[in-house]
Every structure is written in C-alpha cells, then in structure tokens.
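Practice set, problem 2.
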Amino acid sequence: MYAQLIDDTTGKTLASASTVEAELHKQVAYGGNIDAAASVGKAIAERGQEAGIKACAFDRGPCKYHGRVAALAEAAREAGLEF
C-alpha cells in the first residue's frame, strides 16, 4: 500500500508513504490490509503537513472507494489532511 502527494502543475512528488518503508513496515505485520492502509494514510497526512500541504484531491484511480482505499482516506482525514 502506498500514497503520494503530487503537484500536478510541476509533476513533482511532494510527499509519499508506503508499507515497504522500514519505518512503516515495523508498524504493520502485513502491508495489504486495512490496518496497513490506515498507517499509510496517517503517515501521508503527517508528511504532507510537514511539507506545508493542508488540502489535496484524492485520486483513487480505478479502485473502488471501500476497504483499504477508504481506510487510507479516513486515516488521512483524521490526521488533518483535507480532500
């Protein structure tokens, strides 16, 4: 599970979070479940705030908004990121 905050005008990634990172991998035993998605959501919100990002658009791609996708979004909102 991963998430990125990207500036669409420049195409640059401003912040990212993934369960394959050592920091997040220690927090979750398996990277493909709802708990892992929530950890990524919280981390991306915190890293975004450190980069000065308070609001963004949530692009879920072809994935439906339920399960892991919804858990990531809800955790990011709870951590202060606005969609």
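Problem 2, part (b): a different protein.
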Amino acid sequence: MDARKNRIEDQQAWDLVKEAREISVAKGKKVVNFSRVTDEKEAVLKRMMGPSGNLRAPTLRIKDQFIIGFNLEMYEKKL
C-alpha cells in the first residue's frame, strides 16, 4: 500500500498491531523492540507513528511480528 495515498493514523495503526507478538521500530540508527504490545500501547504508538501522524514506512508484517521503519542492521537480523 502506498502510504502517501492511504494514510494510516493512530487508531487504525493500533488495530493492525495490537495482536502482534513482537514489534520492532527503527527511527534512524535506534531500534526499539516491544514484546508486550498491549501493555505498552502509548509507547508503541509514539514510536511507530511518523512526524506527519502517519504510520512510519516501510512497515512489514511477518505472521505475528511487525517491522516498522528502516534500519539496515535490523533488517539483516530480522530477515
């Protein structure tokens, strides 16, 4: 999906990830991992949303795991 044409805002983004086993979010060189997603809703949303209020890109879903944002080292470990 093209994020420029189809915005995914807070509640819609949360609905996508709330059942995830793990979420990894990259912002620049920093990567944050969440394993208790439902217990950390506000922290997860704060990390996964970009400055425009849209879900950070790229976002990948692999079964019950999400990889959000771009960090080459994170991709090498996860994929």
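Answer key, part (b): The chain has a mean pLDDT of 92. Residues 10-78 form one domain.
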